[in-house]
Amino acid sequence: MSRQNREESLQKEIIIGTRGSKLALIQSEEIRRKLQEKGYSSSLKIIKTKGDKILDTPLSKIGDKGLFVKEIEEELLNKTVDIAVHSLKDLPSVLPDELFIGATTGRVDRRDIFISKDGKKLSELPCSSIIGTGSLRRKAQILALRPDFIVKDMRGNLDTRLRKLGEEEFDGIILAAAGLIRMGLIDKITEYLSPDLVLPSAGQGVIAVEVRKDNKEILHILKKIDEPVSRDEISAERSFLFTMQGGCQIPAGASASVSGNSLTLKGLIASLDGKRLFRGEITGDRANGKELGRKLAEKLLSDGAAIILKELRERDW
């Protein structure tokens, strides 16, 4: 391709595939602004996913092969959109061969948060309090902290979950801090949960931009908005999850932090009831994030986490 033709192709409007929830649109608009700052125009195409359509069934029972991304990826592969914007934690640990994470944003806040109906912190709630979450990872860790709690499944977008807290029997709900921050709802947060107590999901707080590997022009553009620290952190986190065969049906968490040329990764896998919990930590060169993720996962598996994975695979969901 000649330089003139390449420049003309880069000037075309970039079509962004996204879910239609308020948070998804806020995240996609963030990517639009970043592209605009680099001189590129873009528009949004809203795509409804399986995870958006089935709201009365726990995620673990539906299956975990890209519930919130598959339909968007199909449009990306069919070339009806140029890029796709996701919450990185929603992306499966294995992407289709033709696709690639072309850019990541800086992490807003990796922590989970607790929102109480009456303003009480988790530690202040009475026995048999009812906590809502759609995540097995959160459920297992909360039960490890407070086995007296009753943890019930809660589905829906952020607005829906906040409404359910007010209208239904829940005493509190657990969500990702990043979503509330991006939606300007920090005042709703009762308590930030330390990663030492509730380890976040891999990629939590990061926005991912997915692209076709053969779209060299768009890949060139996305390099201009990519955040190297986030990319190195999520490389380690997703490698850990991949080695753990992690997804919606695996109560696993991973959180990596970069400091200079060093990267520290914390990982966790737990039984569904929170009674068995395997944690680990590894530090090494930030350039070797994938290897660090693999090593930590293998360490936890050898420590006994492999038994939990076997039980989960044999479970009748």
Helix content: 25-40%
- CATH-defined fold name of the largest domain: D-Maltodextrin-Binding Protein, domain 2
Share in β-strands: 15-25%
Shape: globular
Described by its quaternary structure, the protein is single chain
- Content-based structural category: alpha/beta
Low-confidence stretches are: 1-9
User: What's the Cα radius of gyration?
Assistant: 20 Å
Largest sheet: 5 strands, mixed
Number of domains: 3
Order of helices and strands: HEHEHHHEEEEHEHEHEEHHEEEH
> Would you identify the CATH architecture of the largest domain?
3-Layer(aba) Sandwich
Q: What does this 3D model show about the protein?
A:
Helices cover 36% and strands 23% of the residues. It is an alpha/beta fold. It has 3 domains: 3-105 and 206-226, D-Maltodextrin-Binding Protein, domain 2; 112-193, D-Maltodextrin-Binding Protein, domain 2 (3-Layer(aba) Sandwich); 238-314, Porphobilinogen deaminase, C-terminal domain (Double Stranded RNA Binding Domain, 2-Layer Sandwich), CATH 3.30.160. Helix 10 runs parallel beside helix 11. The longest helix has 26 residues, at 289-314. The model is unreliable at 1-9 (pLDDT under 50).
